[in-house]
Amino acid sequence: MIRRRPRLGAAVLALTVPLAGCVTVHGERADIPSVGRAEAARVLARFAAVDNAADKAYDPTLIPGIQSGPLGAIDEAGLRAKRANHPDGDPAYRPLVFSDTRYLIPRQVGWPKFFVADTAVNRGTGARWLLVFRRAAAGRPWRADFLAVPPGGRIPDLATDARGYAVAVPAAGTGLLVQPGQVATAYTAYLQQGAGSLFADGAQTTRLRTARAGRARTANSVTQYADQPARGGDFDPVALRTGDGGALVFFGTRHQSRATYRADHPLAVDPDVAALMTGTPHTSVTLSNVGQQLVLVPKGGGTAKVVFLSRIVGLVAARGE
What we know:
5 helices; alpha+beta; 32% strand; four-stranded antiparallel beta sheet; globular; 321 residues
């Protein structure tokens, strides 16, 4: 499993105006950068420090302070499982180090606000992560909601406004092939039904459906799948406009698989799965996963389709019956 990271924010910006006293620019009404670059750097540094401590000790209690949304759900459950099986932590843990970071900061009105850290990591040659940090309101902490690992560490060129800031894309009314607020619904409907032609062929679309079909019925088991969008609060999607009029969209999903086995078939359960399991697996095992995805959504009116740039799925719960 790939491990992850946090965020920071600017809620209220106080400006001192000569001969005019102090003017407060309110983040809930003014169009201001979501965060200053110095503050964003501090958020990422804090994230690295806490995340490294959590990973080394296998301590899930540290995760809510720096993560939420799909990323937080996946990492908290993963550390809970590791802690159950390795209570002394990981003495060989190699600390995560960020470098060559650029901050993709949009100007926004109102709350929540977000920014994206596009950063190199010491987890493979040329590896880069995109971490989405979101802040719910003034005075609330910045926490990382999404992690994406694009192939080759590359993403399309992003649009910028007249002041050089990234451009946030709203959930609806965007001129895109599919609205950011509907991408999760469209994707989970595609996984369930195979309907529609919004998504390009690939590992997370056509090949995933083919693999599921192959596992649906075997000599020893029958497997059923259920997929739903993950929405609300820190699970809501965020999007940035690309230079060609499309958008990068980060979104979350929930997935269940229920495998039912013939009565005399022996069940072998992975220790990390067992650590998250309720009930006793006699003839069936239900796995609940959370997905965090990054896709490139083209502008509407053309022939291009939605392309997956990253998909990370993690187990968050299991049930045996």
